[in-house]
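Dear colleagues,

As part of the handover before I leave the project, I'm documenting each prediction I ran so the next person doesn't have to rerun anything. This entry is a single chain, and its sequence is reproduced below.
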Amino acid sequence: MEAKNIIRDFLRGALDRGVLQMILIFILAGAFAGIARNIGAVEATVAATLGIIPASMIYAGLFITACLISFSVGTSMGTIAAVVPIACGIAQDTGDSLPYMVGIVVGGAFFGDNLSFISDTTLAATRALGVKMRDKFRANFMVVLPAVLLSLCIYVLLGLSQSSQVPPQPQADAAKLIPYIIVIVLALCGLGVIRILCIGVTACILTGLATGASSAGMLGAALDGMLGMTSVIIVALVAGGLLNVIKSLGWFENFVQRMEKTVSSRRGAMASIAALVSITNIFTANNTVAILSVGGIAKDIAVRYKLNRRQTAGVLDMFSCLTQSLLPYGAQLLMASAFAGISAVSIIPWLFYPLLMGVCATVSILRIK
């Protein structure tokens, strides 16, 4: 194939309507997250949640807090930045293990990274498989529910034998919780993600104006949030272009033919998707990038083997998040270890929820007939 034809196919893939829609979603999500941080909505959510936690429930409370915040803001990084410093303060005051306390927060952060309606991994997985977020959420949540409950049981049992105290929290401004509440309610109602984010951004701006936030500050925060999505946007463009080139060159067909020699069942096909996204994640150290890179291939495999596409989107998301949580060179563990002043490797053994999520995801594949 001539070079000009490769460039033509690359541009056609990069400028595909689905890719451009995904980029618009990333831009809106970045603006929403940036403004929400600027107006203090994240801090208000943390204060509101931690302000009602009994001392004996501190471990379970931190986990729930991280889960709720990550589900609301759609980012594990934002959750880690907001809650890990609090976990470090609690550990310092109570003498609890610092890697353990940080592990609770990081584990909960991946709950929302996997399930949130505005998480970039959810957006990438649902767009790649062509399924509704609501349907993917339902299928995905039923798989990880046992992991959530088991994690909570562990933290409750450990907390009952401790006498940890929650540091004093400032009184939460209830008005600043409104944007997150609106986004969650609209998502659960099944409204389209672009509409949800547009309404969410508007709600953030109105909330900020009502609570005295600076218009210039919110504008700057929105721009910073959108700029923070630059790498993901570039990857989306490159992934779309490369996937189209790969298809044009026939490489995908060769890959499928080789895979078919070792895969003889629907269960094996789903397992190959899980392995593919996990291996890609190890090399890219970014779960969203991994999904964007293999999402198109996963969809074709799902069609070929008549897999449930909602379940396939969930498997893509779960195994990418599992792999990301176990990478000591991944952004999440690097940020958490930097906040706590500890080794990233020391946090990994305490990531109860991601590990249990991986077990549940594996069981869900084994149950495929």
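The CA atoms of residues 139 and 333 lie 28 Å apart. Residues 133-160 form the longest helix (28 residues).

All the best with the project,
I.
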